[in-house]
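PROTEIN DATA CARD
Card holder: Baseplate J/gp47 family protein
Chain length: 348
Origin: Pelosinus baikalensis
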Amino acid sequence: MARIYSEMTYEKIINKMLARVPDTIDKREGSIIYDALAPAAKELEKAYIEFDKVLERAFADTAHEEYLEMRTTEMGIDRQPAIHALRKAFLYTANDVPMDIPIGSRFMLEEINYVAVERLSVGQFSLQCEVSGDAGNRPYGELLSLNYIPGLAKAELADIITQGEEEETDTSLKERYHFRVRQPITSGNIYHYKQWAREVAGVGDAKVFPLWQGNGTVKIAIADSDIQPAIPALVTTVAEYIETVRPIGATVTVVSATGKSINVAAKIVMAPGYALQAVYDAFLSAVDGYLKEIAFSSTYVSHARIGTLLFAIPGVDDYSELKLNGAAANITLSGEEIPVLGNIDLEV
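Structure generated from the sequence above:
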C-alpha cells in the first residue's frame, strides 16, 4: 500500500504554518514564531506517519499479526494455534517385556521433552511434546527417562499420532481469508469443501473431486502445512471434522495427496567468485517453492520453468542437459498427486 501521507514531512508542515503568518513578522529559522511552531510541526509529522500505519492495519493485504486477526475474525476465520506433537512410545523391561509407566512420566530425546499422557496398550503410551510446534515431529529413537521408573530399561519414541504444528503464519491466514471472500462459497459446493478442509490445523491445501463415485459422493485430497502428503492422523481428523459440517446425504472420502518425487539434474557454468554450495542451496529453495506453489493447481511440473529458476540463480552463467526425473520434458501430475522435491544434482 502506498503511503497516503508520506508527503506530509516536517519541512512541508512548518512551511505551511509559516505561510499563514503575516510577512511583517520575522519568520526566519531561530525566530520566536519559527521556534514556537517547530515542535508542533514535528509532532504533526509523527501523527501523519501513524495515520499511514492505521490505514495499513485496516486492510487484510497490509495488516499483520493481531491486526490481521481482527480483520479475518470478522469473516469467522481465526488464526490456527500452535499444536503439540503427540507421539507413540514403546516401553520395555530389561528382558524386552512391554511394561507400563505412570502417566506424567517425562522423557527427553535430542533436547526435546515429552510427557506421557495416555496409555494405549501394555507398554505403549501416548507422549505429548512439552513445546508446541513441529519440533516434536522430527526425532525418532531411544528416549532418556527424566524420572526414576522402577524396572524401565528402554523407551523408544515412534509414530506420530498428532502432528505438531507451528502457529499459522500471516501468509497462510491471508490466503484463507482471500479464499473465503473471493470464491463463490455456497452450501456444499467445491469451494465449501476446500474451505472446510483448510480450517483444520495442519492442512496446507486441499483438492476436491465432486461426484467421484456418483451422485452425493465427494473425495478430498489433502496436503499438510508443508505441502507434503498428510499423515494418517491428519486425514482422520479432517474426515471427522467434515462429517460435522457437510450437507446431509453427502458421502465424503478424505485421502492424503500422493507425493510424486521430482529429481532435477543439470550441468551448470559457474560465474567467477561464487561457491557451488551457495548456488545449490538457492536453487533447491527456488525449486521447492515452485513445487509447493503448483501443488493441486497444475497438471504438470514445467521443465521450462525449472530452467528459468536455475538461470535466475546468482552465480549461474549458463546451464545444459537439464533433466527432470531423467528426461528433458515436463512431468505429468495426476489428480491426487502433488510434486515433492527429490534429489538436486548440479554438475559443474
